[in-house]
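[09:14] KT: can someone run the structure on this one? pasting the chain below
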Amino acid sequence: MGKVLKQAANEFADYLQSARGYSSNTVKAYETDVLDLAAFLEKLGVSEVGQVDLDHVRDWLFAADQSGLAKSTLARKSAAIRSFSAWLKKNDLVEVDFAQRLKSPKSSRTLPKVVSRETLAEIFDTLSQNASPDNPNALRDLLAIEILYASGCRVSELVGLNLEDVDYGRNILRVMGKGSKQRMVPFGAPAREALDTWISEGRAQFLNEKSGQALLINSRGQRLGVRQVYALVASLTDGTPTGATGPHALRHSAATHLLDGGADLRAVQELLGHASLGTTQIYTHVSVERLRDGYQKAHPRA
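[09:31] RB: done, structure tokens below
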């Protein structure tokens, strides 16, 4: 009897976590995709890895497409199953790499949301007005937004910061990015001021045995969570021209504003921790879009 699909999915997830060093979010997504395939095939009487073939996977993807899933989600599902199939073959759990010839649907790349400089100035003004020693939550919130915009880091990287990750002498943060890759990112004077105030006047008010070395902690003394940061950014951007959005918009904004200001594309790639320059180049498209919009609004013969 061959290995059951659901059991193989769990072992595959363990492999991604331990051997490949994938982030917990990626591991969970890939495992969910494989389990979704397993549930689909179970209805067809297919429960073992050795019974799966390429047509089964294509039927599953077709059903997912018909349900209205985004092209980017379908592309990820395809990548997950190709990786799963290759792992099965490598470990001699199947005779044929059944997904080797599986093609991913091309995902339509949408331009990222960018918060304008003017809107950000208003947001920082509001945060600064609320930040005071008797309001430690506001001190922490100001620092969180300052770091997100100053460094362009991901929200997972922000909440993962520890006290020892701060280089006070050079105003640099050591962040842990995707694939457990570390990189150094700079931050400016406003972020440094917010950091100093949070450390000296805010963090101590929440500090307890649960805090450990976490830089950003909540009122219960625990490490600040991703959901809390999402809620914070959404509340700050609600009602602005951008509309309520998440922390990634501040990462997009940092990259776009740097390029608008003349920063080198490869320097921005390093800052964001992109493995491919092509990923960073989308921000040049944002700048071109902005240029075109400005031209059409301002030029008399546009």
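[09:33] KT: thanks! The chain has two domains: 5-90, 117-297.
[09:34] RB: yep, looked fine to me
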